[in-house]
Amino acid sequence: QLRGAVALDGPSGTGKSTVSRRLAIALGATYLDTGAMYRAATLAVLRAGVDPGAAEEATAVVAAARMTMGTDPRLPGVGLDGEDVAEEIRGAEVTGAVSAVSAVGEIRELLVQRQRELVRQALAEPGGVVVEGRDIGTVVLPDAGLKVYLTASADARAQRRTEQDVAEGRTGDLASTRASVQRRDALDSGRAVAPLRAAGDALELDTTELGIDQVVTRLQDLAAERD
Ligand code: C5P
User: Fold this and answer.
1) Has this prediction a pTM greater than 0.90?
2) 0.95 surpassed by complex ipTM
3) 134-170: burial string, b at 16+ Cβ within 10 Å, e else
């Protein structure tokens, strides 16, 4: 069992990223944002002018792309071919195309392999690693020492995503964000390969009525029980 690994999965807008980073800081752990990897892969595909749904071409682009993932929870940088793309991967263009790219099985294989390698490196250090995504508990790290699946009502998720967009300087409109979040979740849950779902042995935590601090405290308690 990978005792030092925490797997945090769930749909968008559950507070997953904020919570994962805060938990990693509290535990003195490193942090891996696998969504950022699918986003960087999508940016590479878009930049190459390849249709995100063209599996074979898109896979070739991702295989050739030089992706660097920072694992410091305070400043997790994302690089693509030597360029800092942390902001660009959050934009509407990448967000609109990422579910198509992440549905390609060969691309998932490439990225899952890199994710496991990054986790292996992280676990060589004390403190452990917090990994967030959609398929961490089910596919990437089925042996993680702690698996949590975060949920929240559709309203709460749309509201949080909109607030986050506004806070980070992107346009935030509740109705269109709600539609975009729902569309992405439907695609991620409905795909054939590694669909979004809770692992059988994951703890489900509904964050609709909880503040970030409460969620982080709850996860710290769970991590302490594990130790
Ligand atoms: O977490 P984030 O919203 O940044 O993820 C972006 C997209 O990447 C998701 O909508 C999903 O399509 C894909 N993803 C995935 N598997 C993961 C993490 C993200 O398919 N482990």
Assistant:
1) yes
2) yes
3) bbbbbbbbbebbbbbbbbbeeebbbbbbbebbeeeee
